[in-house]
Write a structure and sequence with these properties.
Helix content: over 70%
Largest sheet: none
Number of strands: 0
Number of helices: 10
Strand content: under 5%
Distance between the termini: 40 Å
Structural class: mainly alpha
Amino acid sequence: MSCVQTIQDYALRSIGFGERLLPRGDYTLCEQFTLIGSGMIWNIYYGFVALLLGFFAATGLAMARNSHVKWLRKPAEFFIYVFRGSPLFIQFFFAYAVFLSLKQHFAFFQPFTSAWLGATLVLFLNTAAYSAEIFYGALRSIPKGDLEAADAYGITGWNRFKRITWPTMLRLAWPSYTNEAIFLFHGTALVSFSSFPVRGQKGDALYYASYFADKTFNPFIPFPILAFYFILLTLVVITIWGAIGRRLNRHLPQAVIRRPRFMTMLMR
């Protein structure tokens, strides 16, 4: 089988298109690159959905934690503490056990026992907690002069949050939030080890890397390929988040903006 034919057969296998059976014997480098790359579709899906929803949840949690109202602040502090204080791997197992128990009594929870929804929900809650702590620190670091100037101009309430508080919070938190985005995409590799089942052997990138490592008894080919794909994904995240960061800081003098060095961000 040629490499072009292999790509046609297996490039979209992880989402249900193409050859149904996995390769048997004579595992070529092209097959390993193609199938592990196909599995990366799920890793990107897990990370993208969790980050998109977690960003807005984290903003609300950070505002709640920064609130003077006790019944808003305490639940937010407890949520952040629990998800930051427990390992992500344990959260996967605990959530699957809870959803499995609920499914036996309520059919509504049936989809939550699958990786595409249950694992994504766990990642969403995890990144919401970590991002909320980052945003909370940024909220506490907003210069009081900015808020006092807003009050002097009569900008209060929602307008002050939309025009002063939220943009400044994002500008201050963005470097740390970029690291959180990278860590979350790396954390998607744990889904393959969690209890959430994968239908029809259509797993993520680590699932296919483990498959080839088990069949060939040589982990030094599939796992470096997996690392290569995650390095590429990290470069994409750094590029996109860096562009957003420059957009957030576009109003500042160029000398004030600290542009993180590429290799420094990569090594983090």
